[in-house]
């Protein structure tokens, strides 16, 4: 399977999607690393900083959906090309911010640019890989995101200390623009032949009759997968936006040490996300008779539940080492589920709607990025500690993991004679 997955024609797709993920989280997490400097320079409170963190997700969540629809209509290659240029420019524009309002506007526009990434990755994987490789391919390509988060600490922290936090944002803007040129030059929308496409249909057992988007938006499988993804993103955005400030404010680290410590959860998260898809595909092969959806749920429920327990306990421990260890474990198990949400959509949705349905799911999931960071800032201001924020993140994910067991089921499609047919996937 690996030799076919890393074939000469697919390798540029995998590499550049992986690098897109690296750049995406390098850009996105740069603000949280620079937050102590920005907060001081622009005289911002924790509540204001939380609102700024959340403002990113306003544009991001909306364009998760719009970007998914665009990838179905205009192609994933063009959609991601435009998205990379837009988000890189507005990442650099952070250096021009002069206060609270300007930061909010820039972050909303930056979020709009980053919004289409995951849906376009899902669409490109659906175009290029058969069903028994998709979770692996999604996990591998998306594993660039925690790696980007890992390197942002040293890069942004070092540049901010040595020169200025503004220069770091200009540097990562240039990196994104270079990627866009390489993407347009070396990647095609679909493979030249259609042999693999027919393999996808045969393994998936999903009807290829085109249905309206509203059909999928009413399916419990889609809605509760989105809810689980919401809890995933709630923990992720809590970590992504507030963990550096937690280390500085609650654990009294200096920025230099914080920049290094933040690498640890990101690195183990990279391992989790890169391996999560392979784990799911292996479970699928081992329990083929139970259907592909069973393998997805086993990994999703187990790992999301463990992640929830770890992040909740991190808010209760008293030492920095134990807190960082628990957060790292939480991120590792969280990222083991990272490819599964997209794999479920690809398993149960017809190919022509994968981008739109995946984008809608991602939109719902990323409302967590609007609610979570702002709510965390409010809780910190009101309570004077991060404990309640940790417990809330963990409790939400426990509830979501249990709901997946009950509500994520094979979708029922209508047969040509209008009778309801349950497709076991």
The termini sit apart by 20 Å
Percentage of residues in helical conformation: over 70%
Give the CATH architecture of the largest domain: Up-down Bundle
- Structural class given helices, strands, pairing? mainly alpha
Short recap of the structure:
This protein has 425 residues and is mainly alpha-helical.
Structural description of this entry:
Pfam families: MFS_1. With 425 residues, this protein is mainly α. The chain folds into two domains: 7-188, MFS general substrate transporter like domains (Growth Hormone, Chain: A), CATH 1.20.1250.20; 213-410, Growth Hormone, Chain: A. The chain is 79% helix and 1% strand. It has helices spanning 2-5, 11-41, 46-73, 76-92, 100-114, 117-128, 131-142, 144-162, 165-186, 195-204, 213-217, 220-249, 255-261, 263-286, 292-314, 320-336, 340-348, 354-365, 367-383, 387-407; strands spanning 412-414, 420-422.
Keywords, separated by commas or semicolons:
425 residues; mainly alpha; Growth Hormone, Chain: A; 2 domains; two-stranded antiparallel sheet; 20 helices; disordered C terminus; transmembrane transporter activity; ACS family hexuronate transporter-like MFS transporter; transmembrane helix; transport
